[in-house]
Design a protein that fits this description.
single chain, globular, about 90 residues
């Protein structure tokens, strides 16, 4: 993601916060949807609990089928399950 946006003026279309207080939204750069791009390239997950867009779902399914990015692994662990499984400090 940093290769796409570092040093550039981006726009965040905010959509609230998650359960940890992190800002949720769509990152835009020159009319491009950066969220969709990183999901389509296989470098990010669609978290359907917060985003149910068909656009992201389609991009993620295509990345899975093509084994791009994190989908090169046969059984990647979604981040929210990984965090849940880690012992608390």
């Amino acid at each position: 993601m940093s290769d796409k946006v570092f040093g550039k003026k981006v726009t965040l279309e905010g959509q609230g916060e998650d359960d940890y207080g992190r800002t949720l939204g769509t990152l835009k750069l020159d009319g491009r949807n950066i969220n969709r791009e990183v999901v389509a390239e296989g470098w990010a997950w669609q978290y359907v609990h917060f985003d149910k867009s068909v656009e992201l779902r389609t991009a993620q399914e295509r990345a899975k089928k093509m084994k791009l990015g994190l989908w090169v692994d046969d059984a990647p662990i979604v981040p929210w399950e990984y965090r849940r499984a880690k012992p608390k400090r």
